[in-house]
Structure prediction request, 247 residues.
Amino acid sequence: MLPPLPRWFAHRGGGSLAPENTLAGIRLAARMGFRAVEFDVMLSADATPLLIHDETLMRTTNGSGRVCEMPDALLFALDAGGGEPPPRFAEAALLCRQLGLLANIEIKPAQGHDVRTAEVVAGMVADVWHGAAQMPLLSSFSLAALEVARDLAPEIPRGILFDRVPADWLRQLHELQAVTLHCNATYLTDDVLQEAGAAGIPVLCYTVNAAEKAKMLFARGVCSLFTDRLDLFAPETNDYKGLHSPG
Ligand code: G3P
Ligand code: MG
Prediction:
């Protein structure tokens, strides 16, 4: 079942105010009033799921090499920012539960690791959120990963994720029994929005870092946005500063 969707998700944990995909970022998002966070999950060489965006370690840690070839003993000794190691997914999942944050867990398999990544992540989500009132939302650019999640843990809601939305997106979404459409705001067309509206599918867009753009996307019918600009968020209205809305 689809959880209620807040209008704003902190992108990669704490957006640009904290090192991306870190526990510090997730904590910051919660402190700043966000009700939802998005982060990326990949497997180490030991098949431990961790929060990281790139297939290589260079951009976001003080290490180098490929995440999927790095054993845990080396990987979790690295610094992912602020002295914090790359977080294990299990830690981030528990933190989201503790903080009452809706987690959008993006399954981000390294090339060729789609099935195993989805198996591990879906299995862990089913354990951590077992019996929870609010389930997280899984998403992925990898259709193979979403298929595995559907078959292994159908009770966890899934979102289908595209850069440019293809013409047959709704057929793919139904096949995956997904409940949300996630896509790049830049390429979103009104045709897609109309189709989604008619089918009752919420549309979530990444990555929106300007109030004017946000305003326009909401006016066009977009449900939720992923943002790096946590500083533009006003917790008292649960919206970007200057963009007032009921919820
Ligand atoms: O899940 C939305 C967004 O995070 C997808 O793009 O590259 O930031 O993971 P990326
Ligand atoms: Mg992502």
